[in-house]
Specification:
Layout lengths: L2 H4 L1 H10 L3 H14 L24 E6 L3 H12 L4 E7 L2 H11 L3 E4 L8 H9 L6 E6 L4 H9 L4 E4 L3 H12 L6
Parallel strand pairs: 1-2, 1-3, 3-4, 4-5
Helix pairs in contact: 3-7, 5-6
């Protein structure tokens, strides 16, 4: 097997190519009609609603990105939220697996393309476990194919990096609505 076939970034391309054309078309139509880059949070084809943390407790979050600048920006965004506690970060997919297993967060923000294991593979792995965290993909690759692949992997939200400052807090609030206590 050649090195190109083993490259995890090429596995992502293969995963995206397997999305049915009909599903890609429906997603493109939805995006054109709504002008949004955010996936619906409601369950669809394998997505599960997340159990919110107990009333009064902080949402525990892990951020995964191979870019130090993006990691810092996402971390700062979360740290600015009163009800979110950043409990860890990871710079690649393998490190993310260990951090999430160790820290058991309520929320994981991850890039789509990562060294080792990509964001889609991480989502599949996390969603197969009991008490799976909410997964939000934050990526520059805002295409219908990527959104469809994320949905198929069980991702709870998808935000374009271009719009993350405006959209990410709203997506988190949809997943973890404030309690009415």
């Amino acid at each position: 097997m050649n090195a190109t076939a083993l490259d995890p970034r090429n596995r992502l391309v293969t995963q995206l190519k397997t999305i049915p054309a009909r599903q890609r078309s429906q997603e493109a139509n939805h995006r054109a009609a709504t002008g949004t880059a955010v996936l619906p949070v409601e369950a669809e084809a394998g997505c599960r609603r997340v159990e919110p943390p107990c009333s009064g407790t902080l949402i525990r979050a892990v951020v995964v990105d191979d870019s130090p600048a993006n990691l810092k920006m996402l971390s700062s965004l979360l740290e600015g939220q009163d009800d979110i506690q950043l409990v860890g970060t990871a710079t690649d997919g393998y490190h993310a697996l260990h951090r999430v297993r160790e820290l058991e967060p309520d929320l994981v923000l991850t890039a789509l393309r990562l060294e080792g294991i990509n964001g889609l593979e991480l989502a599949r792995h996390f969603k197969a476990r009991p008490r799976a965290p909410a997964i939000i993909i934050v990526t520059a690759e805002d295409t219908a194919e990527c959104r469809a692949a994320a949905r198929a992997a069980g991702v709870d939200g998808f935000v374009s990096k271009r719009h993350m400052l405006a959209h990410l807090p709203a997506v988190i609030r949809r997943l973890f609505p404030p309690s009415s206590d």
